[in-house]
Specification:
Helix content is about 5%, strand content about 40%. It contains 1 helix and 30 strands.
């Protein structure tokens, strides 16, 4: 059964409010009498089955009453250019939000991890600490097919999770962004050495008292060959460097814009050092306008970052990095959504590198997205060698125009 855009936007707004309540300790609220519907969140574009074509995974929640709601991952495999099979649906934990891919078991195939901020009904004026993750490993005998989810309680509000080797033992682990402000931490779930494929109890990584986080990215920031962590924290980009003893250095927080929401790591300027890109929602979540931006944190020398702010559409939520005009250098796409606006679609800001100034990004165009778009990913949907934009709501794809690289068609359904 379909329901109105306004009703779906209202529920998405309620979900965002619950996350904020979890971060700060608020809660409570009534229930909306609306028909059941699907709400999609985190999205990943990658070649899951090894056929050289981009596939799509998206987190999906079935809403038919008060939370918690049943959650799933929908996996769309691409067999030919723009030919996506009907999604295979895998049950995961309640209300999945963040989603990412990585090789957890070391078999050379991508696995998936979904994060659920809360698995229990919210309580008035109580910070949620019922977060969990669901880890889906690929079936060794069937490429692109996933085994039943390994579900693990994390505590906190598990807004996002990533797969990476973070303890120096050559086994992949899972790192979680905890959104609860009073917890002030990320959470590390180490893969067991005694029982490979299983996760040990979560261990907190402090990022500062009163600091929650909504998304994380993993990459080698200091060139030592070890994966480090960057979190879109409530007051900036929180950097946690892995050290040589299997632990982590104290967190460093770099100022970003107003209300950081999303984060990515990439070498934007081609100097061999990783840079950080942060999507900042601006004033829209508080009912205002303006202030949304992308903060580009260029690493100008080891451990030193220079910040540049670039204004984007209100309510910036997530940022993805890839070459978006075929010139061989990374660009950025930002998805923006103002939850309170029930008649305005999401907006997609495409930021291209300036041809004469490597490392500088500028908004080249802003496109209307689907009404509830708040997650974005990049990949080649039609086999033309140009990257396209994928958005969770639908899901939909905006195809890059081959005749005018760097420009994109309106959203169309994935299949």
């Amino acid at each position: 059964m379909r329901t109105s855009v306004a009703a779906r936007r209202a529920v998405l707004a309620a979900a965002a409010i619950l996350l904020v309540a979890a971060c700060g300790g608020g809660g409570g609220g009534g229930e909306a009498a609306i028909p059941p519907f699907w709400l999609r969140s985190g999205i990943v574009v990658a070649d899951f089955d090894g056929n050289g074509r981009a596939d799509v995974a998206v987190a999906a929640t079935y809403i038919a009453g008060p939370p918690p709601h049943p959650g799933y991952l929908d996996v769309y495999l691409q067999s030919a250019p723009r030919q996506f099979a009907a999604p295979v649906q895998y049950p995961v934990g309640p209300d999945p939000w963040g989603l990412s891919a990585g090789d957890f078991d070391g078999d050379g195939r991508l696995d998936l991890v979904a994060a659920s901020p809360a698995t229990e009904a919210p309580q008035p004026n109580v910070a949620s600490n019922s977060g969990a993750i669901a880890l889906l490993q690929q079936d060794a005998a069937r490429a692109g097919v996933f085994l039943p989810a390994l579900r693990t309680a994390t505590g906190g509000a598990a807004n996002d999770a990533a797969i990476a080797e973070l303890t120096g033992d050559a086994r992949a682990d899972v790192i979680v962004a905890d959104g609860v402000l009073v917890n002030g931490r990320a959470l590390l779930l180490e893969q067991s050495g005694a029982q490979p494929g299983s996760l040990l109890a979560p261990v907190p990584i402090p990022i500062g008292a009163g600091r929650g986080s909504g998304e994380l990215a993993v990459g080698d920031l200091n060139g030592d060959g070890r994966a480090d962590i960057v979190l879109a924290a409530s007051d900036g980009a929180a950097i946690v460097l892995q050290n040589g003893s299997g632990g982590f250095d104290p967190a460093q927080v770099l100022p970003a814009g107003v209300l950081p929401q999303g984060v990515a790591i990439a070498d934007i300027d081609g100097d061999g050092r990783a840079d950080i890109v942060v999507a900042n929602a601006g004033n829209a979540p508080a009912g205002g306008t303006g202030g949304a931006s992308v903060t580009l944190l260029r690493q100008t020398s080891p451990g030193q970052f220079a910040a540049t702010a670039i204004a984007v559409a209100d309510g910036a939520r997530r940022v993805a990095i890839a070459d978006l005009n075929g010139d061989g250098v990374p660009d950025a796409a930002v998805i923006s959504l103002v939850y309170q606006s029930q008649s305005t679609p999401s907006r997609i800001s495409v930021l291209l590198q300036l041809p004469a100034a490597r490392g500088q990004l500028a908004v080249a165009a802003v496109y209307d997205g689907p009404f509830n778009g708040n997650f974005i990913a990049i990949g080649d949907a039609d086999g033309d060698g140009l990257n396209d934009l994928f958005v969770n709501d639908g899901p939909v794809v905006l195809l890059q125009r081959a005749a005018t690289p760097g420009t994109f068609d309106p959203p169309r359904a994935l299949r």
